[in-house]
Amino acid sequence: MQDTRLILAAAEKLVTDNGGYLAYCDTDSIFVSPAHVKLVQKFFASLNPYSTKVEIFKVEENVDGVELHDVLFYGISAKRYVLFLRDSKTGKITILKHSAHGLGNIRGIDEKQWWVDILNMHYHLDQKDEILSKYKTKYAVAQLTISSYDILKRFNKINKGKPLSQQIKPFNFITVGTATQTDAEAGEPIIPMLPYLDAKKQDQAPFMPFMDYKTGKIYPNEDNSLESHFYWKKQSEILEKYVSHNDEKSEGDTGLLSIKHVTINKSSIRYIGKESNEIEESEVLGVSEKDYSEYVDKQGKLLEIIKNLTLDVAQKLEIARRTFFDLKKKASSSEIINLKGKTLRKLRQLQFEDKQEVIYK
What we know:
Elements: H1 2-17, E1 22-26, E2 29-32, H2 37-43, E3 72-77, E4 80-86, E5 93-98, H3 111-123, H4 128-133, E6 141-145, H5 149-152, H6 156-159, E7 173-177, E8 192-195, E9 210-212, E10 218-219, H7 235-243, E11 250-251, E12 258-259, E13 270-273, H8 279-285, E14 292-295, H9 298-308, H10 311-316, H11 321-332, H12 341-348
């Protein structure tokens, strides 16, 4: 990963130093000004590890294998973008390649038309209300897989008393909506959740009684007079929010944006959402405490533990006296401490469990 980032940074520097620009960059790709494509390919040619000529940076292709060179780019954030052509006379937009990030779980959306409408709102702001009106009678109905115990246990009430053959099981599909209301007691968004509905019935979902994903309460109920569909977000609201999504990696709002620079404080704790296929689920269900990993500066934490470690505690942990004094000596001189196996596991027992801190190798 670090090598990839270095290559991308070098490619960006090469292009910008030669009068070009960077339109998009994410993990393993970089979209640059057309005139500088060959410059980038030539610069990195020597890194080719194969006996035959292979470009380190290949020109992006569409689903038909056609190179997308000298095309238009529209980006909302790091993973929300589209490559397209626009007829200068008619204004007709042709989608060449698009991202479906944030849309993968919402059923019934024509992704290409979604992007055409976004681009038309960009070029014709006066048509925004007309374009959004097409989505005001449609709801954001998503399909998710029961891929974790946390999701499965939400169906305990529904499963209770039913034979196994009729219960909702792991890896079954479920139907969920995007919250529009908040539970007054819990202070949490009310996320409509139903057992799986096929394509023929999914349009009926917003008009059916449902269970709140967060609390397990059944809605509508006698405590709230709202009808079911008021709890489901409309696609028009999703579209507006999708377009206005803020890109945390860039400086500014519109136009050619510069990359945001960050300063890392190695001694502090940082919370990072899981980088996995669960990111699509979080778009619908939100992010819970369990969806975060907590990263701690290993050396700083080890030094803190060892400096506070007493011989009495070390012996209770069955750490040898010789190891104890060796660790103390290294800690006092702030030497780099590399621990493995049993000793590291024993020291981990001295962490504050309520803070859920972890020392990573």
